[in-house]
């Protein structure tokens, strides 16, 4: 079955140079996504924990479609790119200066999330995250708020 894409692959995509594993660490709430398989309370929170060996443990809802909930170890590549064996790389496309909101996606466009530290988000912050997805070629008309 062909992979679904939520972005125009002819548009350049970039990851964040601001990414810092220590500041990114902690629990995030998934506020919006493109993927219907992530609907429901079972995929509400995701926890990022930097490891001493340079990898990042990702627990809870997994950003790789088809992966079960649990913990996956990702290698942290430069510029906020997370890579795990057998999974598509996840890129941190944007993180707010205060590390309170983040946008994750894949170069293929098979995945995209808006994450926040908690359920509440200011409308202008959500709009900025949505515009970032649009800038990276995502079809934001298909974005689902949770």
From TrEMBL:
Residues 84-145 form the Lipocalin/cytosolic fatty-acid binding domain. The lineage of its organism: Bacteria, Pseudomonadati, Pseudomonadota, Alphaproteobacteria, Rhodobacterales. The keyword Manganese does not apply. This is Apolipoprotein D and lipocalin family protein. It holds the Pfam family Lipocalin_2. SUPFAM superfamilies: Lipocalins. Keywords: Lipoprotein.
